[in-house]
Design brief:
The structure holds three protein chains of three kinds. Chain B is mainly α. Chain B contains 21 helices and two strands. By secondary structure, chain C is mostly helical. Chain C folds into two domains: 64 residues, Arc Repressor Mutant, subunit A (Orthogonal Bundle); 50 residues, no CATH class. Classes of the chains: A alpha/beta, B mainly alpha, C mainly alpha.
Chain lengths: 286, 526, 139
């Protein structure tokens, strides 16, 4: 049970309206990892998350969640799943307290004290009508609902876009505070533009570009492996050369995977610079 | 020069676009044309051309009232669009447009008043002498023309017109009228006849109610309550309030965990999406409809009204008001561990909307029956006792006819729900959702009337007045829903590959649009 | 235990490595006593809003390097050991020196100017903090 990856995606392709949202995406998310999904707008982050959860039907490919096919999730799997979508989807006609307890009552692991504590922590008043909440408050409410039943697998699609910096820190803290069932660590998949937040918590990073996997790996491993090289000339495309850009007449910037790159591909004495997530993102996407 | 053109284009857009302007112009031209025709040619007694004059009167009145509403809208446009306040020379343009609107309204008012006086007088003189209101001499000749209209008729119509205009200005002065919500009273007033003396006060009463409601809303229900109860008070009161309803719902949902009890669980969660306000309003509206149901004066033919298309169309109109789809958080529903399969998703929408609709219909029936009994017992108000809307003393007419209408409303509302929830591609498009109520009515009305015609031509017994309501019940309670149900079967395959996020975002956009419209009505800042 | 970590997530150095370096520096400088307890994994994760796995990775690495050990009922404690050898400390200093050298080169300073600036800085530090300078070994 511990060996199966939390999420397994194979050759997922999604097209709609003439746009290719996902193009042959394959990846595995190990249990207990925190996967940051990073990419420009329209790179396919939301589509990937939605296909993983079975909300969208892909044209081809297969996706599994906790050992269950995404398009046919069992109640057991759904009960261990928490999802916050890009725009908070809530039952507008209920009050906050009712919403939390009615939805929570459908989950076996829901804890009312935890839900109350989370409400206080995220400063949401329980007797307000959901209709009257601001966007940031609705987002926080969606996060509370996702966390209140202590899920094993959390999927967040830009959950903190409308939160202020304090709210975002609180969110990051709250992710790791509760123990999942059986003491197993919680698996988190989170897509966000706020890379400073992701850098604090991510164990793995996935870079998407135009629906394709650009780069995927452990966060620390990537930091040590993927570096920026500056040369005077262009380099032929090859394994290990992730992206090249010409900055000036005799200045080329390359993002290289030092372990996959063949010896001698780079001229000797080439300066190599380690990259932060933000720099890597920029280098890969411009 | 260019910027002035742009501003004018903006104004035209604000007031409803070129279509609206065209409708105005056409109304003006048509009403003047008809007025000229009426001045030139006298009408015969039973001439159906008289209805043209009445229609022209309605058009001209609507154009005139519309101009007044547009004026109030213009007064309040700064509250809605901050760019308006910030752009240069908007004051000058607003003044120019105001002058034009006043001109248009006044121009339209002339044929409106004249034609209304004409049709009101012609209605009055062509009655039996003992039914004539005072001040009118019975018509001995078989023709009628403008020469026969007494001057006090013009004065009365002009006075009433001026009264309605004043009411509109007062009622919408602070919020500004919106295109959709204001059309209701406009059409009502435009079409209201002063033929029956009992009715003349109705528009003023309605206007007064609007003003009072607006005042109450602003000062008691929305702003003041929020100011009065602070956050702390609210939370204290919350703790003291016994959450019995909430815990009941929760317990019910928790207790029902079997796979076949999905309905109960979802019902507990999805109760009353429309909110008490909307439910109450639609229930009251439908109740009033039930109270003023068309009936037959003759005892033995309680279903004659069902022979007329107009009655059916009106019933469909009311039914469509009761069956408005509501946005649902579909992705959240998909991920709830309640045993749903993807292909069942259309049914979720159907069940929620249907429950919403029949709740409103049942409340309307309750209210309607009660009101109807009270009104006929009191013999008041007068307009409900008019010849067209007489009650018969028989139980059949008291019960069978309204019951037939309730069944008809339920069936029609159910059909609208069925059709609305059939296709996920429709649900994913905010534009499609916006026109869905109108489109379903337009689709179902000819089907319903076609089924009626089919039944009447093939089953002789239904063609006479006795069993007209049976036709009504059969068509609206059975045939229409069956037709609508077939829609759900046809589009079922689409749910297998439906994109729930697309539905979610489509519904989100649509419900934002609705919220903006209602915010316009109540004058809340968006 | 009052090691105050300075976590900078948006740099190229992974967070676990920052923690390891900071603990190593503190131990090497002698500002910790053997037996001092490191803050718990949860406490660090909570305080700096980072992934607890990162913290435990850092602690495991420190344990394998021999700087800390796990004691029952107490968590991670600093191991009793002699102050680190000169080599280790110089190795820990090297990144800062490299950076200073790079900056001085960018500014176009000569070697003598750079060294003079370094000496001035040391003199300033010595003058203002005699207590601390007594603890430091002579370079």
């Amino acid at each position: 049970m511990n060996d199966t990856p939390a999420i397994s995606v194979e050759h997922l392709s999604l097209r709609y309206g003439g746009v290719t949202a996902l193009d042959d995406v394959t990846l595995n998310v190990e249990r207990g990892s925190v996967l940051a999904v990073v990419g420009r707008n329209g790179a396919g982050k939301s589509s990937l998350l939605q296909c993983m959860l079975g909300l969208t039907v892909p044209q081809s490919g297969h996706s599994q969640l906790l050992g269950c096919p995404s398009l046919d999730l069992t109640d057991d799997v759904k009960a261990r799943l928490g999802y916050v979508s890009q725009s908070p989807e809530l039952f507008e006609w209920l009050r906050v307290g009712e919403q939390i307890s009615l939805i929570g009552g459908l989950y076996p692991n829901w804890s009312e004290e935890l839900a109350r504590a989370l409400c206080v922590r995220f400063s949401i008043a329980e007797d307000m009508k959901v209709r009257t909440l601001s966007l940031g408050e609705k987002q926080r409410l969606a996060i509370v609902i996702a966390l209140a039943h202590q899920p094993d697998l959390l999927v967040f699609d830009e959950p903190v876009a409308s939160l202020d910096p304090v709210g975002r820190r609180d969110f990051l803290r709250a992710l790791f505070e509760h123990e999942a069932r059986d003491g197993e660590p919680v698996t988190v998949v989170i897509s966000s533009h706020l890379l400073e937040d992701l850098e604090r918590i991510a164990t793995h990073v996935l870079f998407l570009e135009k629906g394709r996997v650009q780069l995927i790996g452990g966060r620390d491993e990537l930091a040590e492996r993927v570096q920026l090289a500056v040369t005077a000339h262009a380099i032929a495309p090859q394994a290990g050369l992730l992206k090249s850009r010409q900055l000036a007449a005799d200045e080329w910037q390359h993002v290289v995977d030092t372990r996959a790159l063949a010896d001698g591909a780079l001229p000797p004495d080439t300066a190599l610079r380690a990259l932060s997530l933000g720099d890597l993102f920029e280098a890969l996407n411009t | 020069m260019k910027s002035i053109l742009d501003s004018w284009r903006f104004i035209v857009g604000l007031l409803g676009g070129r279509l609206m302007i065209a409708i105005w112009l056409v109304s003006l031209i048509v009403s003047y044309g008809v007025l000229g025709w009426g001045l030139a040619y006298p009408m015969q007694f039973l001439d159906t051309h008289r209805s043209f004059l009445e229609m022209a009167a309605i058009l001209a009145s609507a154009a005139s009232f519309g101009g007044v509403l547009a004026l109030t809208y213009l007064w309040n446009v700064g509250k809605r669009y901050s760019q308006w306040k910030l752009a240069p020379s908007t004051d000058r343009i607003a003044a120019q447009v105001s002058r034009i609107l006043i001109l248009v309204s006044s121009l339209a008012a002339i044929p409106a008043v004249m034609l209304r006086a004409y049709s009101a007088t012609s209605d009055r003189v062509w009655r039996l002498p003992d039914e004539l209101p005072s001040g009118y001499t019975p018509s001995s000749s078989k023709t009628f023309s403008f020469a026969d209209v007494p001057s006090h008729a013009y004065a009365a119509e002009a006075l009433m017109f001026a009264g309605v205009v004043a009411l509109l200005l007062v009622a919408f002065r602070r919020t500004g009228a919106t295109k959709t919500i204001a059309m209701g009273p406009v059409l009502f007033w435009a079409a209201s006849q002063t033929t029956y003396r009992a009715l003349w006060w109705l528009p003023f009463a309605a206007g007064l109610i609007i003003v009072v409601l607006e005042y109450v809303w602003r000062h008691w229900l929305s702003g003041r309550v929020e100011n009065y109860f602070s956050q702390m008070d609210r939370s204290i009161r919350k703790k003291q309030r016994t959450p019995c309803l909430t815990s009941w719902r929760q317990q019910k949902a928790a207790r029902s965990r079997g796979a076949d009890d999905v309905d109960a669980r979802l019902a507990a969660l999805l109760a009353l999406p429309s909110g008490t306000g909307v439910t109450a309003l639609s229930a009251i509206f439908a109740a009033l409809y039930l109270v003023t149901l068309p009936n037959n004066t003759a005892e033995h033919a309680p279903g004659t009204w069902a022979l007329s298309f107009v009655a059916w169309a009106f019933a469909y109109l009311v039914g469509s008001v009761l069956a408005r789809p509501v946005a649902l958080p579909v992705m959240r529903l998909a991920l709830l561990p309640v045993g749903h399969r993807r292909t069942q998703f259309g049914e979720v929408f159907l069940k929620v909307w249907w429950r919403d609709s029949y709740t409103k219909v049942l409340w309307a029936a309750l209210l309607g029956f009660a009101l109807r009994a009270v009104c006929s017992a009191l013999g008041w108000p007068a307009f409900l006792q008019s010849p067209v809307f007489a009650y018969g003393p028989t139980l059949a007419q008291w019960i069978l006819v309204p019951l037939a209408h309730v069944v008809g409303l339920l069936g029609f509302a159910g059909s609208v729900c069925l059709i609305s929830s059939a296709s996920p591609r429709v649900l994913a498009s905010a534009n499609a959702l916006t026109v869905l109520p109108i489109a379903t009515v337009i689709l179902l009305t000819p089907i319903g009337l076609g089924c009626k015609w089919l039944l009447e031509t093939n089953v002789v017994a239904l063609a006479n007045g006795n069993l007209g309501f049976v036709t009504f019940v059969l068509v609206n309670g059975a045939m229409l829903p069956a037709f609508a149900w077939s829609f759900t079967r046809i589009f079922r395959y689409q749910w297998r590959t439906a994109s729930l996020p697309a539905i979610s975002s489509g519904m989100q956009i649509w419900s934002d649009r609705l919220r903006k419209m209602s915010a316009d009505v109540t004058g809340a800042r968006s | 235990m009052n090691i105050l970590f300075v976590i900078e997530p948006s740099t190229a150095t992974p967070i676990y490595r920052q923690i390891v370096d900071q603990v190593a520096r503190a131990v090497a400088a002698g500002s910790t006593q053997p037996g001092d307890e490191l803050p718990s994994v949860r406490a660090v994760a909570e305080r700096y809003a980072i992934n607890p796995m990162t913290v435990s990775k850092a602690y495991s690495l420190l344990e394998s390097q021999g700087l800390v050990e796990r004691r029952r009922g107490m968590g991670m404690v600093i191991r009793a050991a002699a102050p680190a050898a000169m080599d280790t400390r110089l190795a820990l200093l090297k990144p800062a020196i490299d950076h200073a050298v790079a900056v001085s080169r960018q500014l176009g300073l000569t070697d003598e100017e750079a060294l003079a600036a370094m000496r001035d800085a040391l003199a300033e530090l010595n003058a203002h903090d005699t207590t601390k300078s007594a603890k430091k070994d002579r370079p």
